[in-house]
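Newbie here. three chains, one complex. Structure please?
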Amino acid sequence: MANYFEKVYEITRQIPYGRVCTYGIIADHLNLGAARMVGWALNNSNGLQRYHLDHDFVPAHRVVNRLGELSGRHKFGTPTLMQELLESEGIEVENDKIKDFEALLWRPEFF
DNA sequence: GTGATGACGCAGT
DNA sequence: GACTGCGCCATCA
């Protein structure tokens, strides 16, 4: 069942600590052509965090839309959890948006 | 099989 | 600069 999920997970897991990535970059890197699929896959990955935690942990909180907005914060159980996680990694979040987003942006190709 | 939905992105207004 | 509409692909009712 090597779907988009695993691909998205693989990319997302490569995001370094204190860095962020966007749906568009992931979608483009996977040649999906639809950024919606990335968010959809990450929605499933959210449950994956609970199951594997340290093993196949997917830092979905490091994935945001192209504007650096925490669009998926409501899927983390609490609307502030995503921001809390980002801030705990040293990422400054202002009004549900990542500060210095461009500076913190990380790309799979750059890896 | 069809229509609606989704953690998005882009072009046009 | 903000809002709207369309496209994108996969899943669900």
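Moderator note: Residues 67 and 97 of chain A are 8 Å apart (CA to CA). The radius of gyration of chain A is 13 Å. Thread marked as resolved.
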